[in-house]
Amino acid sequence: MYKTLIRPILFKFDPEEVHYFTFSMLKNFPFLTKLFLPKPIEDKRLEREVFGLKFKNPVGLAAGFDKNAVLFEELSDLGFGFVEIGTLTPKGQPGNDKKRLFRLKEDSAIINRMGFNNEGVDAAVERLKKNKSVLIGGNIGKNKVTPNEEAVNDYKICFEALFPYVDYFVVNVSSPNTPNLRELQDKEPLTQLLGTLQQMNTEKSNPKPILLKIAPDLSDDQLLDIIDIVKDTKIAGVIATNTTLSRENLTSENKSETGGLSGKPLTKRSTEVIRFLSEKSGKAFPIIGVGGIHTAKDAIEKLDAGASLIQLYTGFIYEGPELINEINKELLVRASRLPR
Q1: Residue spans per domain, the chain
Q2: DSSP single-letter state for residue 178
Q3: Could you confirm whether the keyword Oxidoreductase appears in this record (predicted)?
Q4: Cys-Cys with 237: which of 63, 98, 105, 286 at CB 3.0–4.6 Å?
């Protein structure tokens, strides 16, 4: 129903306006999900235990969709095993100028240059205080006006504020839409940033998993550096991958827009990065796979490449909430083939 009835209507309007309209509908009329969407699959065989946390299923929602922790309960009700909020910054900021979100329909893709638009970490904390049962990841970043040499303080502020209210953290240094942010992926500043946060973490009575979200545009040498950094800092794992700056083989009219590209064009590259990290590290740490998952087959390929969990974003927008069930159904089929 989503792809035949709902999506064609939504796709006639500006994507950012549709995003907020959809949020309003899910928040104010939650009965619509029960009326129009299939009941989420629940099965013990879908549960996963990763970095010390129990996930009801391995299909999560990637950061960027619910930036301000407004809709995490409603999104969980759609069937997601976990919801990652953010990217959050210490102070609220409007992000980049509009128009900043573009559909590439012929490529089943999206280009965004949102620029960490969010209400600030304290606003999100107030909403998260009401959370009863949703497993939450907190994706954190730096404010646009904060110079890189002071960026560590922004991450520390977000980490401290969110700590009691999220189950794991994601350090975002890979968005292409905040000036010079990706420079923090270089070995020295990244080691310092992650080391500082991990030191704060270990001083807590109940340390939380810290993950690093990386770009798909890193070279093999840079990925090897990432493996070394994860091992040296002892963070819990990696999210692979964020959006890409590549525009290879696109056909849509919006293909030349600046920003990060997500969706089907990223499917192959993100899986390659997952496989590289898994194999070269000897499966030393868990990986959350994200990028171009539009079918159950795409999800299975990422899990087979070495991902422990997966996340949806653009595939969720193009394929609808039914995609969550499709992936979980395929996982149950696979589970039924295993020897008991």
Answers
A1: 2-334
A2: S
A3: yes
A4: 286
Ligand-binding annotation for 11, yes or no, is no
Q: Is 67 annotated as a binding residue?
A: yes
pLDDT at res. 340: 53
The percent of residues above 90 in pLDDT, for the chain, comes to: 92
Quote the pLDDT of residue 336. Answer: 87
Which position among 108, 175, 278, 281 bears the catalytic label?
A: 175
Cα dihedral 310, 288, 143, 178 sign:
negative
Mean pLDDT in the chain? 96
CATH class of 2-334: alpha beta
Starting at the edge strand found earlier in the chain, the sheet holding 101-104 runs 101-104, 109-112, 260-263
pLDDT in tens, 181-212: 999 999 999 999 999 999 999 999 999 999 99
Is residue 279 packed enough to be buried (19+ CB in 10 Å), middle (13-18) or exposed (0-12)? exposed
At 100, the amino acid letter reads R
- d(CA 231, CA 238) in angstroms, rounded, equals 11
As a whole number of angstroms, the longest Cα–Cα distance in the chain is 56
- Averages of pLDDT over runs of 10 residues in the chain (340 residues) are 91 97 91 80 97 98 98 96 98 97 98 98 98 97 96 98 98 93 93 98 98 97 96 98 97 97 98 98 98 98 98 97 97 82
The annotation status of 66 as a binding-site residue, yes or no, is yes
Q: Is 314 annotated as a binding residue?
A: yes
57 a known binding residue?
no
Q: Which residue has the tokens 């827009």?
A: 257
User: Per residue in 112-160, pLDDT tens?
Assistant: 999 999 999 999 999 999 999 999 999 999 999 999 999 999 999 999 9
